[in-house]
Sequence to fold (207 residues):
Amino acid sequence: MPDDPSAFHLNLWKKRLGRVPAWVWERTDLETLVLADNELSEVSSRIGRLKKLRMLDLGHNRLTQVPDALADLDGLTDFLYLHDNQLTSLPSSLARLTTLRYINVSENAFETWPESISWMAGLIEIRASDNRLTSLPESIASLKELRHIDLRGNALTHLPPAIVALPRLEKLDLRWTNLQWTNSQSRDMPPPAWLATLEARGCVVYR
Fold:
């Protein structure tokens, strides 16, 4: 085991790589890997070899998809950053990341909710702002550990009553969406009953 703890952490932020060097996939000892802001358009399926990763940052790139092999990252418990890419969907296999606690898919091109996220049972925080989402599925209720979900800047017109089934939810950010009852200029539509239920138990709803 290396004496230097930093040996388990690789930061390649903003190196203009264009492509991930092959030697990175040989670093099976890594616990954190930062590949943000590198003009990446793809990620090799070899990433699945990095079984000890706890944190992976693929933000600020040009990704239109991520490999199924991300689901092989058994140790991914802390953070998965996929924000500021060109993603429209996520592999269904990512539902296997049941110990992941934080995911950021903001600033992508999702028009429908990535269903795999609904089955990441360990999630505490989801950031999904600035996409094109119009609604959330009933399956969101499966995330019993969820405390914070950021949905700002989406095209939301509907949220399922099932959201009240999130027992630990503390913050729900709905600013700059198309939900009529969040618009201070349009009060002709009353807020849904589940909103009062959430707020009564202490959940802060930003609208």
Notes: The mean pLDDT is 94. The domain at 5-206 is CATH 3.80.10.10 (Leucine-rich repeat, LRR (right-handed beta-alpha superhelix)). The longest helix spans residues 193-200. The chain has one domain: 5-206.
